[in-house]
Fold each of these.
Amino acid sequence: MKAVQPCHGNTGGMHYRCHETEDRPTGMKKIEAIIKPFKLDEVKDALHEIGLMGITVTEAKGFGRQKGHTELYRGAEYIIDFLPKVKLEVVCTDDMTERAVEAIMAAARTGRIGDGKIFITPVSEVIRIRTGERGPDAI
């Protein structure tokens, strides 16, 4: 398979051309998962077990079908519309995507409403800022 890689020529600029490279997966996916916060450590451990090291985690608030809940505070009832969630993002090669999704699903599932969602989108390019590596090498 030919992979497109940046070339640094004497022109001072960067251009792209095809290089003969070894066969390796060039497709990548971004997996975004919205999960319950107390499941984060289990999901992180499950991803680590399958060989995915880097994840980004963001605290989030939201609701789906559960539509929030009611709490009692000092005798008054309050409707909590947005529930605490955690959003995690992982970028991996196409061949790791299904294993990552299965690991997230198994670790995040409680069987109750509000377990979350997983979104998978294609990633056209990844660049490691420190080294300039591109594609799967930069993940």
Amino acid sequence: MIKAVIFDMDGLMIDTEKLLLKYWLKAAHVYGYAMTREHVLGIRSLAAKYAIPKLQEELGADFDYYKVRTLRIQLMNEHIERFGVEEKPGLGLLLDYLKERGYLTAVATATDWERTKRYLGSIGRLSYFDEIVCAPMVEHGKPAPDIYLEAAARLKMAPVQCMALEDSPNGILSAYRAGMCPIMVPDLSEPDEDTAKLLYRCVADLSEVIDLLEDI
């Protein structure tokens, strides 16, 4: 029986994946790297320890991940400071439903605590969550299961009692490895064949998660 719902953040609750895509590409191109959309999609929710060798294999051994990432963060922060962030469709409906029904909630995100707090606070959703776990709080980031296991432990729930909501293949793999019920809400891409095998369901937006909880 599902008693807790654990949320990814970027691309799931807030519409920032399009910004990550835009500014990864812009930052990489500033430094002369031929990064493409496919390269960025491949590292969504991927911890640096996994993203670095992947990108160096694809773009060359001289790819300076941290240099590019630093500029990407700067450019993205400037955009968000000017325009803010938008929440994804159905988020409010789902969070209100979970609160009314007594479900526990947590965030499991690759984003650091300060930005997580700032983003969720800016859309008035920070107080909806019982726990927030960010990648720097665990030893291994996504697609390892650590972040989801930590979230479940903080909620005092067994992983099997938790539904995990994700928009990326790396996030789904993390939740699946943790033994949770993985739900994908696609953002920039639909699940590929390998990801589809790991899913309990794939839904169009967060409001549809309510029907899944009603049926389980």
